[in-house]
Amino acid sequence: SKATLFDKGTRVNITFADVAGLDEAKVEVMEIVDFLRNPKKYTSLGGKIPKGALLVGPPGTGKTLLAKAMAGEAQVPFFSLSGSDFVEMFVGVGASRVRDLFKQAREKAPCIIFIDEIDAIGRARGKNAMMSNDERESTLNQMLVEMDGFGTDTGIIVLAATNRPDVLDSALLRPGRFDRQITIDQPDLAGREAIFKVHLKEIKTSESLDIHKLAEQTPGFAGADIANVCNEAALIAARKNKNGVDMADFQDAIDRVIGGLEKKNKIIA
Ligand code: ATP
To answer: 19: Cβ–Cβ under 8 A, 6 or more apart, which residues?
Structure first.
C-alpha cells in the first residue's frame, strides 16, 4: 500500500500480533528488532549490525505491515517513503528528499526507514521505467551515499520493499546496503485463515462464521484482498440493515473482490 510522503518518524502501535502468517519472515525480522533494542549486545564482540534488508514479495502480502510492526515491536519511530512518489519529479528533488529523510532519521535514531517500491528508483540502468534516467540515477546515488554514510552502530535500519528484486541495480545489494533478503509469500490456506481471523476481530458478525470455508474460497488472495473482503462484507450487511455480518454477506463480498481482481488483471494484460 502507499506510504505517505513521508511518514515523519511517527510512532506506530502495530505489533507482530497484527501480522498473520509469515512465520519464517517474522523470525528473521525479530532478529533485526533485537538489534534495535540492544545494539550494544551485538557490537560488543566486534560484529557489525546490518544496515538494510529487502522485503521481497507480491503486492498486498503485508510488507509494509511487517515493517511497521517491526517499528512497533522495537518501539522506535517509523519513517517511510515510496519509490512511486518520485515518478515524474524534477531532477534533484528526489535526491534532496532522500537526504532530508536520512537527516531526520539520524536525529531520531534508533529508528526504521521504510522505502516502498524501491524498484521505482533502484532499477538497474537502461531498464525501462516510468522515471527519467537522470532523475532516477541521482535519487539512487543519494540513497547509496546515505546508506554508506551512517555507521552500523547508528541504530538506523533501512527496509525496502519490492516485488521485482531481479531488476534492482546490484549496487543496492552490496554488503553494507540491502544485503539481507526476507521473502514474503502469497498466503496459503492456513495463512489466509489466520489473516481472516485478524481482520474479523474488527467485524461484528451475526453468527459464528466458518473461517476455514472462507479461506478455501479465496485462493490467490493476498492479505490486502482479505482485508478488503472483510470490509466489503460489513458494508454489504449494513446496507441490508443487518445487525451483524453473516456468511452470505461474506460470499457476496468475495464475489465482488474476485470481480475487482479480474478487472485489474484485464487492465494489466
Ligand atoms: P504493496 O506491495 O502493494 O505495498 P504490501 O505487501 O506492503 O503491499 P501491505 O500494505 O502491508 O502490503 O498490506 C495491505 C493491508 O493488507 C494491510 O494493511 C493489512 O490490512 C492487510 N494485510 C496484508 N497482509 C497481511 C497479513 N499477513 N496479516 C494481516 N493483514 C494483512
So the answer is: 26, 62, 65, 66, 69, 198
DSSP class of residue 218 equals -
Which among 27, 35, 73 is positioned nearest to 52, based on CA atoms? 35
Question: Do β-strands 78-82 and 7-10 pair in parallel, antiparallel, or remain unpaired?
Answer: antiparallel
Q: How far is the CA of 12 from the centre of ligand 1 (A)?
A: 15
Pocket of ligand 1 (CB under 6 A): 1, 19-22, 59-65, 116, 161, 195, 198, 223-224, 227
Query: Residue 252 Cα, ligand 1 centroid: separation in angstroms?
Result: 22
Ligand 1 atom 16: residue of nearest CA: 224
- The pLDDT tens digits of the residues spanning 148-196 come to 988 877 889 999 999 999 999 999 999 889 989 999 999 999 999 999 9
ipTM score of complex: 0.96
Which of 2, 4, 64, 218 best tests ligand 1's pocket when mutated (most atoms within 8 Å of CB)?
64
Q: What is the structure's pLDDT at 40?
A: 83
Average pLDDT over residues 104-110: 92
Tell me the residue type at 223. Answer: G
If we measure between CA atoms, which residue out of 42, 37, 38, 45 comes closest to residue 73? 37
105, 88, 180: which is closest to 139 by C-alpha? 88
Within the chain, how many helices (H) and strands (E) appear?
10, 6
As annotated, the binding site for ATP includes 57-64
Q: Give the C-alpha separation, 195 to 55, whole Å.
A: 19
Q: Which residues contact 243 (CB under 8 A, 6 or more apart)?
A: 204, 206
Q: What is the mean pLDDT of residues 238-259?
A: 95
- The CA 62 to ligand 1 mean position distance, Å, reads 3
pLDDT for 130 beyond 70: no
